[in-house]
Amino acid sequence: MSTGVVPPVGCIGPARLTAGFEDFGRLDLYAHLEVHGDLRPLSADDLIDLAEKIKLTGRGGAGFPFHRKVKAVVESADRQDRAPVVVVNATEGEPPSWKDKMLLTRAPHLILDGAALAAWALEAEEIVIGVADDGVGQSSLEEALAERRMPAPTRIVTVPHRFIAGEGGALVRGINGEAHIPPGIKQRSSESGVNGQPTLLSNAETYSQIAVAARLGPEEYAAVGTKKEPGTVLLTVGGSAAQHMVLECPTGVPLREVLDICGATEGPGILVGGYHGKWITWENAQKAEISRESFAAIGGTLGAGMIIPLGNDTCPLGEASRIVRYLAGESAGQCGPCRLGLPDVANQFQLLTASGSAAAEQAVRNAAGMVRGRGACSHPDGTSRFALTALEVFAEDIKRHRLGEGCGKPVKKLLPIPNELPGGPSIGKLKLDWARCDGHGLCAEVFPELIKLDGNGYPTFPDAPVPIWLESAAKKAILVCPALALHLDKGGNDRDKGKPKPAPRRR
Hints:
InterPro entries: ComplexI_51kDa_subunit (IPR050837), Nuo51_FMN-bd (IPR011538), Nuo51_FMN-bd_sf (IPR037225), Nuop51_4Fe4S-bd (IPR019575), Nuop51_4Fe4S-bd_sf (IPR037207). The chain is α/β, with parallel strands linked by helices. It has helices at residues 21-24, 29-36, 44-53, 66-80, 99-106, 108-122, 138-146, 168-175, 204-216, 218-221, 255-261, 282-285, 292-297, 316-329, 336-355, 358-371, 379-393, 395-403, 442-446, 471-480; strands at 9-11, 85-90, 126-132, 154-159, 199-203, 232-237, 245-250, 269-272, 278-280, 306-310, 426-432, 452-453, 459-460, 465-467, 486-489.
């Protein structure tokens, strides 16, 4: 799903967020009103009451109760005597996810309806909608805004299409004109968000869900789904599934039914919840239903609704290693667990993929354990969760790597990475001229993020792009090498690096 084209949309049960798609494709304002009907404003108390009755939780991954967010903003605005701001997070920085981009391109008025409801209820000063700068859905959203009047001035802000840029705090910072990275300290947007004002920040699907519920009412909304988690959810299914799609389904639907519809066959594991999610076994997937409660019971997480099965024709350790490297490169680089710890996790995971050794496996566990609970944001925790659950689910594959030369399967790159560049924005790969290296070890001292020394004192590092935020450290390591053995490879044939170009022939 890295093509930039929104995948097909499917539905199990009654269509709500996807209603009207078969007849209209994309719903302009006329089609939107014909399908969904008019929308009436709600007071703050009524909005809170509705969200609480339908047990609406955020659909961006964290699953925080929406009514508690609204209530916190109301109380903060009253206490500070400042008008709040409504922010819609439609950035969708996770590469496997397409549900919010689907809403932007095909049902933009549902997103705007939800934002309008919140603005009416809170008497908001402004509405801000954050979208990624990849261009997917922005023009559709602009067209929708041109067709209607919003209850408060509304603007679109673009953010870099990076993994961490969609984090709530990073989005607020970007809107405020700061760097698009999470703040170094925990800060509630309800207290101080856009321009320091109380800010209601939630995901695009969350706003769309409240727009549907406001029309249906709590009883009809809860007519589908489970008692604890009523309504529908949007899922993005990819990986080895024969049919990649965004699927709307009621909570409580068996996960195996979703996998069957998308043509997924049994394999070594399924990633649920996205790149900050968890791996689960195929066996456990047969027991699960689509709900946060059911996924948690089998050791998974629903997260932002990503379901990514792996088939038997790809190396699961190799697939996971690519994503750990990517996540390490997506770090903001502003705290030790990210700047130092995540490259170490990626390094050790690649060594495990190459050798399958018990020592390498323990090294991954140790490295991941060192970053958990210590970061300035949730990125180290999410990355370590991804890596550690991969070790559990792919235990048999690790044994095959340990007993032979890998599992014998190619890495088909079923887990998408933007522009197929593992590690994110990069300055190139580190390369070592073994004929020159004398094992001085100076490079590891100045560049411990990526370079380690093996048992004989020689440098080892992953065959992966060096993240751009480690550029100065990489160049310093190259400069301190007394044997001039270390260099950066920015592409091309490694065997030709350092060789003088032949003079052109005379004719």
